[in-house]
Amino acid sequence: METTTPGTESVGTPNFDEEILESTINEKYNTQCWISSESVGENLSYEFLTMPGSSPKAMGHQLLVYDNPEPSIPRSKRPRAQTAVSTNDTRGSGYFEDSKIGMASYVLGYATGPGPKQVVALSFIPESGGRITTINPDLGNLKVGISHVSVDYTLAPGALPNSDGDYIGIKEGQNFVDLYWGNFLWWNRVTSNDSSGTAYINNTSILRGKSYLLGYYKSDYCRGDLAVACRFSVK
Length: 235
Known about the structure:
Residues 70-91 are annotated as: Disordered. The chain has 235 residues and is mainly beta. The protein folds into two domains: 20-29 and 137-234, Sandwich (Immunoglobulin-like), CATH 2.60.40.10; 32-135, Sandwich (Immunoglobulin-like). The radius of gyration is 18 Å and the shape is elongated. Helices cover 2% and strands 43% of the residues. The protein contains one helix and 17 strands. The chain has one helix at 161-164, and strands spanning 20-21, 23-30, 32-35, 44-49, 62-67, 81-84, 91-96, 106-111, 119-125, 133-135, 138-145, 148-154, 167-172, 186-189, 196-202, 211-217, 226-234.
């Protein structure tokens, strides 16, 4: 899996006042995880769904469990339990034994790497009797200008995109698997540390009628950290 800088980085701030072209998000995939209804007693059961073309075991994906009173990533805490994903299938399930699910609140995080900064999706089980909350990464409000592309992103609360080295990249094509390999046409680091915000790429030249892929990656230029992606076109 590639870990080097994926091509020439876009620099500078886009001209957000330029003409915005009519664009459409045609397809979208994201990484998901959720706590199963079978999570009772001492076992915490989970399920997950990763990106098309992902090989979770080979890419070092992990699941982490934290004691936490709210649905966010407690970056300063050590996980109470952690396990590596044991399959290369994009969809899987498993459970933590002896996790002793009781009256406390817990966060289950799905990470595309070994630590909390790679957590891309989470599921929160509140104190006994509460409703389970699931938060998965998302992209929306795509805007394509004459020379820039911007997109709104949503991550799990507690994520620090800029500090973690998150970035977005664009390739031409329709196959989401291609987002794991080769250089981008354009890419840029996420400049905000907000878990929900806007990411942009400057100096682009999107062509009408062609199909493009935009991927959001968690940290340090490893393509296995692809969290969410969309396919878009401009009329």
